Each structure stands twice: as structure tokens, then as C-alpha cells.
Amino acid sequence: MKIGRALRQVKIVLTGGPAGGKSKGLKRIKECQEILELGWDVVTTPESATIIIPCGFSPPKFLKLPDRKKYLEMQKLIFNTHLFLEDSIKDTAKEVFGELVLMTHDRGIPDIKCYNTEEEYQNFLHSRKMFEIEARDGRYDAVFHLATIADTDPELYMKIYGENEARYEDTPEKAIAADLKTRAAWLGHPHFRVIPNRTLDGKILSFEEKMRLLTLYVKQILAENPLEVEKKFFLHNPVELATFPVPFVKIEIEQIYLSGAAHKDRIRRRTQNGHSLYYRTRKKSTKTAGVKTEKERKIGHEEYEGLKELADRHRRPILKDRIHFLWKNQSFELDIYRSPEQIAGMAILENELLSEEGLASQNAVEVPEWLGKYDDVTGKKEYSNRSLARK
Length: 391
Fold this sequence. Notes:
Layout: E1 9-16, H1 22-30, H2 33-37, E2 41-45, H3 48-52, H4 59-63, H5 68-96, E3 101-106, H6 118-127, H7 132-138, E4 142-146, H8 154-160, H9 172-186, E5 192-195, H10 207-222, E6 227-235, E7 248-257, E8 265-272, E9 275-285, E10 291-299, H11 301-307, E11 318-327, E12 330-339, E13 347-352, E14 374-376, H12 385-388
Parallel strand pairs: 1-3, 1-4, 2-3, 4-5
Antiparallel strand pairs: 6-10, 6-13, 6-14, 7-8, 7-11, 8-9, 9-10, 11-12, 12-13
Helix pairs in contact: 1-10
């Protein structure tokens, strides 16, 4: 995860399944002394559904009605309320707080997708002249999904699910289904992480351990010089998306390296369904293979086009399809290259780690067996995008 202080106002989302610890996680971040002592003001946007539903707008009640338009009016109210709260609190925070503001959001716009059809959700977005990549990636810098306790302790879930009257998943099975829908809604965000209830080796995490993980992730993105700690794997077999066994989101990427950049500056365009966001990134190697400092900021289309004029003439643009997917609570990015021609079809799998300790561990990442044979190429310069772009 690599955001950095250059943003000044960092926007993160806490989402997840019912009874995942989201509300307590928001409180933990807001009260974290290490964050406060670094000079960050922490501001929280409340969940709009928990405001609207107790007013009498019960989703089960409206779902029983023969006219779905009434249900959609209620959902539209939640959607518009959430937009208003986020934008109003963000604008006010800019005026009244200092240079460093951490905006924590109790869910985000894509969460509304879980309770509506794809067409209905797209209609909500279009009514506000928004597109999916903008609503998901453009508004938020990082997203943390806290897994529902229902998948590891269904009895505990049944004891506590009624504490939030905005929730109506009255069985563990419904809670798990809601959890999976929420993950799918956020899939594609470049900084999406799951805070699980168990480790890869099956150890059940306590609530305090989940909160510790969450706090470490947040502190990582607020670091003055954020680190990218990444495992990278070269896949031997071609990837067939038509038979991909898990849900995924495909993002088209154009990546261009700039000339005269001692810190390896690059610009990147991320496109989904014809709509794009643009970024400028500065990387710097460290003494540890697989670890770099990385600062990233969003830029506009005009600035992106202007910076293309500074492209390094010794390197070609990289064109690739990035496949975002989850496997055993791990966030993976699978890059399938389209250009330059000499690497077309190459597939590189990446997984970002929380700390450098995981680089030396054989158990830090579990690569899906259905991807076939692979080589661990972490830290090998010939597999870096910068090297692959060389003419």
C-alpha cells in the first residue's frame, strides 16, 4: 500500500460483512495515538444506511412490495445521502483542519451495489454523472474489508447481529453472502485489502489481532515515505480469462516512463469500460530486493497528456490488462501484457505484503494452484516493468 503524505487529505473506507468489526475499527483508528501524534486529524463519515433505515425505511418492507420503484427510491435516498455526507465533510475538513487530514468512511459508494442490480447501480451513478471506476477508485485512496465473524463463529454472530438495526441478515449464511457481495463490489480498487478472521495456515485471529492488522495497514499508507513490499511471480501457462474460476475485474493499463527521472517517475492510465483515471508515481529502490519507496498521486487527463511529451525515448509504453481478484483473502494483481510486442502474452502475478519480513517466507503468499507452474521472480530487475519497457 503506497499513498504517502503528498496527498495531505487521505481517504480510506472501512467496509465488510455484517459483524466484521467495522464500527469498532473506525473508533480504533480515530483514537490511535501513533496516528494523532504524527499530526493527523481524523474525521469520520457515518454510514448513510444506518441513518436512513431507522427512520422507517426498512429494506425488507420495501422488497415485499410489488412495485420495485419504491425500493429503488429508498436506495436512491441512501446513495444521495452518502454522497452528500462524504463531499460536505471533505470540503469542511479542508477548511477547518491542518495540513494532514485522514478521512475515514463508514462504507463507500460501491457498497450500495450490493443491494441493487448492476443496471440499477449504474443508473444511480449516471444520475450524478459518475462512472464506476471514478466512484470506486477515484473517490477513495484505500479500502479495508473486515470479514464477517459469521464464517468462523456463527454462534457469536447470532448473538450480536441484531445490534445494528440497519442490518437484516438474520442467519450466518446470509451474513456470509453479504460479505462476498461486498468484496465483489470493491474488486478492482488498486488498494483493496481484506482483514480476515483466519491466517493462511488456518489460525483463527482474535478481534484484537484484526484491529492490529487494520491499524498497521492504515499507518503504512500514512507513512512519509511509504514502502511497496511486493512478491512477484512469472506464470508459465497462458491465462484463459474465459475459464477463470473466481470473480475478477479487468483494468486496462497504459504505463509510460518519463525521461530524466532519477527516481523512476512514471505515468499511468487505468481504464475500465472506456472511462479512465490517471496517476503519476515516483519510485525509488531500497537495499532490499522487492522493496521500494513509492509515492503516488492522481492527476488529470490534461496533465497526463502533457507529461507524455516527456516520455523516455529509450523505453516503449507498457500496455497490459490487470486482473484484480481475491484468493483465500489475498488481493492479487495479474498482469497480462499486450505491448511491447516481444512480451505480448506474458503473465506476471503480484501480491503486496504488509512488511519486509514476508519476502523471505515461503508461506507469506499462497499462489492459486489453478494458475499452474510459476517462478518466484521477486526483486529480479529483468521482470520489472521499467526493464520490460526498454527498447
